Description:
Blueprint: E1 6-10, H1 16-26, E2 33-39, H2 45-53, E3 57-59, H3 68-81, E4 86-89, H4 98-103, E5 108-112, H5 124-130, E6 135-142, E7 152-159, H6 165-188
The protein binds 5-O-phosphono-beta-D-ribofuranosylamine (GRF).
Amino acid sequence: xxxxxxxxxxxxxxxxxxxxxxxxxxxxxxxxxxxxxxxxxxxxxxxxxxxxxxxxxxxxxxxxxxxxxxxxxxxxxxxxxxxxxxxxxxxxxxxxxxxxxxxxxxxxxxxxxxxxxxxxxxxxxxxxxxxxxxxxxxxxxxxxxxxxxxxxxxxxxxxxxxxxxxxxxxxxxxxxxxxxxxxxxxxxxx
Length: 190
Ligand code: GRF
């Protein structure tokens, strides 16, 4: 059993998964401590959420660095300073590179809105609808160097609301929030 794992959440957008994880900690459903939110987008709504939660945020723009390695080294410095043990990706729209993969072997987790290995990459929900899938879902997995290819930790299925992207998305996001917190709790209580 790991004692109160210290983790960072990486997000590029709205941060509803960050919020669900934060709320689960607050209500005692998840044992963990969010040390930092890392975002690669200056206008990401997750910044606002982190501020309201009183969590430190690192806004860091990859193109302001000479390379991906240099960008990730800068992030790593901050993670080391805060003694971060795990990285939880929640809508972080970049492939994680070698600097972070090597520093956190089997300690980077992601959530993806499909039943992997179906529909990896961008707009997984759109891809499922485009293919006429009747069932899609959510996957929580370890992160490796590929695009949504790491070993699967947990999955849950969602019935597609045919012809209704908005309702399908709503179902998926609701499920994501529950599955992510549950899976992290299970992982960290092993
Ligand atoms: C989620 O659908 C997640 O599965 C995917 O990106 C989306 C992020 O949503 N990786 P949010 O920013 O947590 O609301």
